[in-house]
Amino acid sequence: MLDIKMIREKPDFVRQRLATRGAGDDARIDELLRLDEQRRKLLAEVEALKAQRNRVAKEIGALMGQKNLQEAEAKKNESRSVGDRITELDKQAAEADAARDRLMLQLPNLPHESVPTGKSAEDNSVVRVHGEKPSFAFKPKSHIELCQELRLVDFERATKITGSGFVLYTGLGAKLERALIQFMLDLHTVEHGYIEVSPPFVVGPQCLEGVGQFPKFKDQYYGLAEGDDAAKLGKLYLIPTAETPVANIHREEILKAAQLPIRYCAYTPCFRGEAGAAGVGSRGMIRVHQFDKVELIKIVRPENGYDEHEKMLANAERILQLLGLHYRVVLLCAGDMGFAAAKTFDIEVWAPGQGSYLEVSSVSNCEDFQARRMNLRFKSDAGENKFPHVLNGSGTALARLFVALVETYQQADGSVKIPERLQPYLKAERITN
Asked: pLDDT of 317-373, one tens digit each?
């Protein structure tokens, strides 16, 4: 959530930054300021009337003491009239407050000044490229062919069990998926200093609102009900990412400055209703409704936010470096960034069988946007309650990492070589038919 004080004091700046996203949110600032001013005027009038009612109450007491009952009764009528007016204005103020807050929740974060302008992924800029694209003396197969021939994934039976957009890992495919998860958790906890947590896979709507996924994307996630009780539908949701529960761990808390920075990592499955939408890339494992991910979360002092952002990016990159995969880092333009992000880097790994790069990580600094929505604060050294920066990043996501790995390490005989760093986890050097 944006800072309402900043919007009041620097409305033109806020409009300008929102305009870089190209979604038209800058046009909503006038309505927001109108609602805010209406709310403030109503509250000021209520406070003035309450002061008047208090004065009248004292006057009634004095008149009663003087046995001036007739005038006292007139003052009581005045007090009741003021009370009725207060009740009406309180209702109007509450309505204006709710309308303002609904609009505030719909406004995205302001892009950082270093974020380039642009409308779509075509306007993103490549920051750096790691390694070289692998070359083959044969035509590389797609992950779909490799997974079917090596019995790593059963696509047909997954569809039979649940429907399209879901994956059934089998045999060494299931073991490879688990090995990748364990490898990433070990690296981030042992070498990068994150604390592992294992959160619930379902959350209340307040957590989705806290990280900025609600209300904008409410129609894209899986709501739950207990049995056939439709009245309970929407009280809990399957998580779209571990960011949702983990970033909310300290919601509505005031942390001590000494507790920062906090670094969490978590493995969870992720559930997204929109991920398997019809269109390009919906076949195989590129776009699925359920996928595994190791997520990184940081809660840090604002002055350290962007240093920690670069470190988190390096932590995610290290996964691909150790696996020997070719990738590039992309700085997203304002029009391609997520709702809550102030600045985002994507890591895109090369998948030879696809002949394209696949996003396996987004690393974002949301600044204090999410902290405000969650009412998460810390007490500064000066004793002030301040909002921290909250960062999130995929460290990294599957199944696209799985796709890139099997396509990169495929051999002429149809087998898949296992990167050295994964061999102790998989207890194998090669996957063969």
From this structure: 999 999 999 999 999 999 999 999 999 999 999 999 999 999 999 999 999 999 999
Q: Is the pLDDT of residue 277 over 70?
A: no
Torsion of CA 409, 410, 412, 418, to 10 degrees: 60
Note the Cα 331 to chain centre separation in Å.
18
CA distance 58 to 56: 5
**DSSP string spanning 100-144?**
HHHHHHHSPPPPPTTSPP-SSGGG-EEEEEES-----SSPPPPHH
Whole-number Å distance between alpha carbons of 396 and 389: 21
In angstroms, the CA 374 to CA 395 distance is 23
Q: Which residues contact 59 (CB under 8 A, 6 or more apart)?
A: 75
Coil vs helix vs strand at 316: helix
Pairing state between β 195-196 and 262-271 = parallel
- pTM for this predicted structure: 0.92
End-to-end CA distance of the chain: 53
Answer for the pair 266, 198: CB distance below 8 angstroms, yes or no: yes
Which sign, positive or negative, has the C-alpha torsion 201, 205, 207, 210? positive
DSSP string, 354-398: TTEEEEEEEEEE-TTHHHHHHT-EEE-TTS-EEPPEEEEEEEEET
Burial of 18 (0-12, 13-18, 19+ CB in 10 A): buried
